[in-house]
């Protein structure tokens, strides 16, 4: 076991010293979970039959002839997503109504029967090609619920779904994420389906072993518990995933994760640019503002989660200008607000450090190198002294999560240029924690780690000034 762990850490680029062994705190993420976590932010595309019927959930009775985008351009989607800083796009290949955006051999309800491209079209293929062209990752959403398929509600349907998975997993290149939906209602025969999750998970593991799988309980990443765009002040990546299942009625009991959870299943925050997930023309002026999106970024990526922003593509098959403008505004705020305000002349003191894991690792940018407090130091302290007073409204910290999530509680003392102080309380850190406060010119920042699951490790510490579209502090 120890040899396997050493090889795993080396593969992830982590320092390892045989004389100064850092013991992991279990559970720990797999290599593909680590790779996914580093993506931070990517996009969802809800585009399907619902786009043309102007509803959120179709019934499966819709005429395929309704699906007929007049100017579909997946290159436009990908160009906008990339310009917005997204690392990938996840497409609704089939929603609850059962209409497939590609020519599946396992359903009669698909683009094959639509007038778009005379039934020869394949939206998944076009998006796959566009992602390859512009260097974005491709993800797939395939709803297990199917309100059209006559086999739904029978054992045979599980194999139908698995066959559709195989088509999507083997014909379109590399997939970075496979997204299941927890919705489970009646099919056209009035029956509900008992899903064979073991079978579904095995298909992805077999054909796309590097892809992470999303549902309420994973197996690799999990739903955060809301669709409003935020994670929680306390957020653990570990969770007892075997106790819950997609559609679990008491999911709120698990939404913050579990400090001593049995498996590593980190959260993903999904939120739409508009009130709805699909395009509705009456919502053209209800697109979230860049300021709102930046707050969402801080409350998701900045609270140990990844952010998945949904883009409702319109009936032309294009991203509406209002949605594009909001995303470009977010990217502008990210460029400004996430820029490091650290200076090489700043001073840093720590209460203790292990040999080879000194405080210099806190500002080398890499999430794979880290400061390690001594094992005997049960309440480590970090003091950052600014060489000159600087306008700041957030600090950012990261743990080296390949060795487990550790910090349970911390306290931050801010001292401004007039020697006035304020003490803030914090809980978990995990992959990334952005702690915000009213903007002020700071002279020093002291962080006391009050409780942790084992030895305190920190891979990054940073100072930020998060701005609004009016070039003012985003936090007052």
Task: Note down, in words, how this protein is organized.
Alpha-L-fucosidase is responsible for hydrolyzing the alpha-1,6-linked fucose joined to the reducing-end N-acetylglucosamine of the carbohydrate moieties of glycoproteins. Residues 1-19 form the signal peptide. Belongs to the glycosyl hydrolase 29 family. α8 (290-300) links the parallel β9 (266-272) and β10 (306-312). By secondary structure, the chain is of the alpha/beta class. Mean pLDDT is 95; it is low at 15-19. An 8-stranded parallel barrel has the order 1-2-3-4-5-6-9-10, surrounded by 5 helices. Strands 11, 13, 14, 15, 16 and 18 form a 6-stranded antiparallel β-sheet that branches. The chain folds into 2 domains: 31-337, Glycosidases (TIM Barrel); 340-464, Jelly Rolls. It is built from 9 helices and 18 strands.
Brief characterization of the structure:
With 476 residues, this protein is of the alpha/beta class. It has helices spanning 2-11, 31-37, 49-53, 74-83, 123-134, 155-170, 197-207, 290-300, 321-337, and strands spanning 41-46, 88-94, 137-142, 175-179, 212-215, 221-223, 238-239, 263-264, 266-272, 306-312, 347-350, 371-372, 381-398, 407-416, 421-426, 433-452, 457-458, 460-464.
* CATH architecture level-2 label of the largest domain: Alpha-Beta Barrel
Distance between the termini: 50 Å
CATH topology of the largest domain: TIM Barrel
Order of strands across the widest beta sheet? 1-2-3-4-5-6-9-10
Superfamily (CATH H level) name of the largest domain? Glycosidases
Number of domain modules: 2
| Percentage of residues in strands | 15-25%
Please give the number of β-strands. Answer: 18
Number of helices: 9
Low-confidence stretches: 15-19
Order of helices and strands: HHEHHEHEHEHEEEEEHEHEEEEEEEE
Determine the structural class based on helices, strands and strand pairing.
Answer: alpha/beta
CATH class of the largest domain: Alpha Beta
- The share of residues in helices is 10-25%
Average pLDDT value?
Answer: 95
How large, in whole angstroms, is the Cα Rg?
A: 24 Å
Which outline best applies?
A: globular
Describe the sheet with the most strands. 8 strands, parallel, barrel
